[in-house]
Amino acid sequence: xxxxxxxxxxxxxxxxxxxxxxxxxxxxxxxxxxxxxxxxxxxxxxxxxxxxxxxxxxxxxxxxxxxxxxxxxxxxxxxxxxxxxxxxxxxxxxxxxxxxxxxxxxxxxxxxxxxxxxxxxxxxxxxxxxxxxxxxxxxxxxxxxxxxxxxxxxxxxxxxxxxxxxxxxxxxxxxxxxxxxxxxxxxxxxxxxxxxxxxxxxxxxxxxxxxxxxxxxxxxxxxxxxxxxxxxxxxxxxxxxxxxxxxxxxxxxxxxxxxxxxxxxxxxxxxxxxxxxxxxxxxxxxxxxxxxxxxxxxxxxxxxxxxxxxxxxxxxxxxxxxxxxxxxxxxxxxxxxxxxxxxxxxxxxxxxxxxxxxxxxxxxxxxxxxxxxxxxxxxxxxxxxxxxxxxxxxxxxxxx
Length: 400
Fold this sequence. Notes:
The chain folds into 2 domains: about 20-35 and about 295-400, D-Ala-D-Ala carboxypeptidase, C-terminal domain (Peptidoglycan synthesis regulatory factor (PBP3), Domain 2); about 50-270, DD-peptidase/beta-lactamase superfamily (Beta-lactamase), CATH 3.40.710.10. The chain has 11 helices and 19 strands. The chain has helices at about 5-20, 80-90, 105-110, 125-135, 140-150, 155-165, 190-200, 205-210, 230-235, 275-290, 385-400, and strands at about 25-30, 35-40, 50-55, 65, 100-105, 125, 215, 220-225, 235-245, 250-260, 260-270, 290-295, 300-310, 315-320, 325-330, 330-345, 345, 355-365, 365-375. The strands form 5 sheets. Strands 1, 2, 13, 14, 16, 17, 18 and 19 form an 8-stranded mixed beta sheet that branches. Mean pLDDT is about 90; it is low at about 10-45.
């Protein structure tokens, strides 16, 4: 071992010199110019008969078309979207579970309108209640769920209005959880698009219910048929909710996805059920015909590998922290430039998920979207202790 000591010290010095030689570099720009189809926004009008309407892109919330979108109108059963949102938030927060048994009060059983005729002696699971609300627009189940979550419908409606304020639904005042006509119970197509977007983006499992066409409850004794006919007839339909009363006329929040483009079309105060479905389809067709959604990056994909200075690992992969994409109009070719701001070298220590750079996607100098670049692994800073461990490991591996 005494004979080996000088050689060992030489090796140790070489390793230390090697790891210390890395210098932290300034960032650089890396550009790629893929060709994408885009166009200026269409200016034609759709000549709708409905009193109010809006079309938005789900990911960005960008308005693609609107007609009297802030007019306060009666929502009818489209109200239930907020009730459903609060149920889904309770589920995803583990406050309740799909298997919980929900009782039926006298009030819930007496609601009338759209219902599945709940009996005060029966209990349904949250899963069954959601199915009845989303597919059959059951007023009795909506009230039963409101009472189960908040103790009373009144307390639940207060939660609905508070959540509406948080979402920026400034045209909205809820008076009940189901949508039967009540003076002062109003919202707008714009506000409906906000809560529809919140529901679909943050609670996508709701589509397990909103895409059901026909199903049953009570061991097949009660049949449910979706009130949203677009589920059966429109390609890519994902929901969402119908509503109608004598005063509200015919309302609909309709959602659909094709080729990564997700749209939400809201119709209020249509003169007939036929018109509400036709005009919702007209809005969706307009969106799919004129726009596309381009995804530039996917969360977890590796951008590249970069060296690590003074680390126990010489290089590390860096990845996209989240998805990155944008809405584009169709019609003409344009260059989207990828601009990468990333150092030549990063210095240890490095933690998993640590931000090391950023990527921008630009069109004509305007940033369309950006995404952080993060480390996908931990790298410890080199020290005498772990350097010795590595040298001995490499040495014994060679000797074997």
